[in-house]
Structures are given as C-alpha cells and as structure tokens.
Amino acid sequence: MSIFVNYYQSTGFIMVLLHPLNNQIAEPPQKFTYPFCYEPHPLCVEASKKLRRYVSTHEVLREDAQNGKMFGVLVVEKKQENENGDGKLYFLAAYSGLLAGRNDWPWFVPPVFDAQQPDGHFKQTEKVITALNTVLDVLPSEERLAIALRELRKQMSEDLQTWLFQQYRMLNAYGEQRDLLEIWHDYHSVKVRRKFPYPPGGAGDCCAPKLLQYAYQQGLKPLCMAEFWMGASPKAEVRHDGQFYPSCRGKCLPILTWMLKGLQVEENPQEKDPLMYPLGRTPMKLDIIYEDHWLMVINKPSGLLSVPGRESRLSVWSILRQHYAETEDWALAHRLDMGTSGLLVITKTRETYAFMQSQFANREVKKTYVALLEGEIQRTCGTISLPLKADPLNRPRQIVDHENGKPATTDFQVLSVKDGITRIEMYPHTGRTHQLRVHCAHQEGLGVPILGDDLYGHGGRERLFLHAHEITFRHPISREEMTLRVEVPF
C-alpha cells in the first residue's frame, strides 16, 4: 500500500499524511459535507479523536493548542481503490494558520502556499517594509523624504499583498485552478469589491481549503469534513474545547464555493427547515397578545424570523403581509433572534413607530428574558458589561471588543438550578445583536452558554432556550405605562 511519507531530518519525525480510519464505524455519506452548517459525520468524529490524541502526545503542539486552535479533518478514499471496491478509508488532518509558529508540522497537510520561508519573496519584502517603518519613526512626518517613503511603503504593501494572493492557486474537484484574487473577484459584486478589494488576511490558510487542496493534489476522493476547536477560547470570540464549528464565511465562503465545484454536496440543512416559506402555503397565524389601532404585540415562536432574511424563509413580517392588506406604514419596533421566542412589538403608523423608537433609544423600554443555561454559574445575581461588535469574517456572530465595540449591559438573576441546568432572568439595558447569548457564553460574562445555542454554545437541542417573557413601555397615544407578559414555554 502506497502512503505519502516525507522524512524531516531536522526533527526526526516521519510525516505520514494519510491516516488509516476504521471503515466499520459507519458508512460514508452519499454526499460531501455542506461546510457552513452540518452535524459531524461519525467518521469525522473518530478522526478528530485520533487527531486530539496525536496532539496530546507531542508537547510542543499540545502546549500551543491549549492556547486555542482550530483543527480540521477530511475523510477520504483513494480513487483507484474505490474503483476496485477496496473501500479503505483514511483521513487528512490540518490546523488553521500556524501551530507553535510553524505551518509545516509532520502528520498535517502542508499549507497551500508557504509564505514563511525566511529567504522567500514574502519574508524578504516584509523585512524591507519593516526597515521603512523604522526610518519613518524618526523622520519628521512633513519632511519630503518621509512623504515619499510612506508612499513607497504603501505601494510595496499593496504589491506584496497582491503577489501573495496570486500564489494561492486553489483547485476544485474538476481539476480547475484559480488564485484567491480571481475567486474573490468572481464571487463578490462590484459594490463589495469596491469596499473590500482584497480577500481577508489569512484567506486560504484555514483548515478546509488546506485539506481539500491536498486531497485534490494527491488524487484522493473527499467524503466528509469537520472542523473543531481545541484549547482555550479566544478573548474576543466564544469557542468551546472539542466543539465542532462551521467554516468561517468571511474567508472561506468564496474559496469553498469554488473548491467544492465537481463534488456532490449536501443541501444546506437550514434550507430544509419546516419554517421555510413555500409559495402557496396556508398563511401561518400569529399569537396576538395585545392589539389596538396603533399597536400589536405578538408572542413569536422559536424558529421564526422577525424580518425576511436572504433566503425565502417564513418571517413575522411576511405573515403580517399575508394577513393584513394595509401594512404600508406598519413596522417592527424591535427584533428577536430567530431562535428566541416571546414578546415582539409591531407598530401600525409612522408616528407610533417613531415614538417607540424614541423609547428604545432612551432606554425607557424594560424587557425581561428567561433562559436556561447549559450549566451552573458562580454568581446568583449581578451585571454584565461587555462591548460587542459584529465579527466581520463570520457574520452573524458577535465578538467582544473592548476598544471598538458598542456598550452592552445586562442585569441577571438566577431563579433556580436543577440537574445542572440554571434558570435565569435577564434584564438588558441595551439591545445589541446576540447580546444575551454572548453575555452568557463569553468567559468574561457568565461563561455558560444558553441551552440550545448553536452559535455560542453546543446546540443539539430542539430550540434556543431563550424567551422574551415581559415588556414594559408607554403607549404611544395614551402615554400610559403598559406591562405585558407571556408564559415561558420551557
């Protein structure tokens, strides 16, 4: 049996990149993994266990991985063996970016392009740019030489970036090649490219592109793939050791859209959701808690969008348009995440919308949420203040950013603890996207995710256990204070 073996004389390691896998664990899937939303196949789960065991036995790798690193596995078979009915399965392993300062560790697939060579064009040009920075630090900023050197530095940086992305020649299953700039240009609209002319830094160095590239180069057939986190969570993001994650969309969506051409890929599971709106479906009825000439307050079910997204999924707004003819001036005064259930305010005139928006902006609206946490917490009550902003490379995820994030504050009170599950009430002072979910899951918050949270927790439940239980606001016409409540469904 031929396997790919390279000898690293400097380390004494034998690099075996193709790792045997027990094909009795499960039948390979009929279609390849949809990498942006998936449940890991049992073969990938087994491969990830082998990868973890390997890292745990190598001190340098283990120590760096403990700081936090994304790893990936790709289950493959040799095409010639598949044709002969041999059926032997293997897996490839990868890590994102660098591991312990290197991109060429034995046992893992190599980078698509190695920019780390000390004598290579990239590193040598970096040295020149660094030298320019040193000179500019001591020159008066308005001096003619300083102006010229800044312009030179800018041009050199742009040229180096362009050159680097052109070195990443990504394959697809048809055997076609395109570099990262071509892929970026073909995927995005002119409007997006004007704002973001280059792919994000590190594009092409994530696990999935590295795994697929090596498989294509070696004539292997990809069967299924998974990526998982090992070690501590980053300070900004929420990651859990051992948790499987989808590929990042900002860097990898254009690249993988190209690289998966020629493979039979599973459908996006989210597009098969029962709440996906098909044309001609009998209109869904909303659970109306309160209604008058100016307002409507509904109890939104978990799984229903507040407003239409990019896909033709059913939403509160699309249901309103079906049921009510005159909705031109109607608007949602605020929103709830798709997975969150509970009270949602709808205004029926522009004046009432403006008044409600004023109350939200002035933090006069009081909201109470109830959630179940997937573990116990140390405190029984308190306040969480963690500034949030969107993760530009992985929307809709939010990250904690103490320098550039928007202020976000939440009060909380533990109601009960049973069988390791904490029932909690939360009172947000601000209304940032995913605020309660991040404040619960992040290590600087409660450090325990909301049960069923597939973005910041472990998912695997029938719903997100977060419910908008109570809301208090002033009526836009009578100006009287109103408090509405709805039963918690869990």
Uncertain residue segments: 1-15
**Quaternary form:** single chain
Termini distance?
56 Å
Shape descriptor reads: globular
Total strands: 21
Describe this structure in words.
The protein has 490 residues and is an alpha+beta fold. It has helices at residues 42-56, 59-65, 79-84, 121-138, 144-167, 180-187, 190-195, 207-217, 249-259, 316-323, 350-361, 435-441, and strands at residues 5-8, 13-16, 19-21, 69-78, 89-95, 169-171, 177-179, 220-230, 244-245, 288-291, 295-300, 331-332, 341-347, 366-373, 381-385, 388-390, 398-400, 409-418, 421-428, 466-474, 481-485. The strands form 5 sheets. Strands 10, 11, 12, 13, 14, 15, 18, 19, 20 and 21 form a 10-stranded mixed sheet that branches. The chain has a 5-stranded antiparallel sheet with strand order 3-5-4-8-9, sandwiched between helices. The protein has a two-stranded antiparallel sheet with strand order 1-2. A hairpin with a 4-residue loop joins strand 1 (5-8) and strand 2. Helix 8 runs parallel beside helix 9 (249-259).
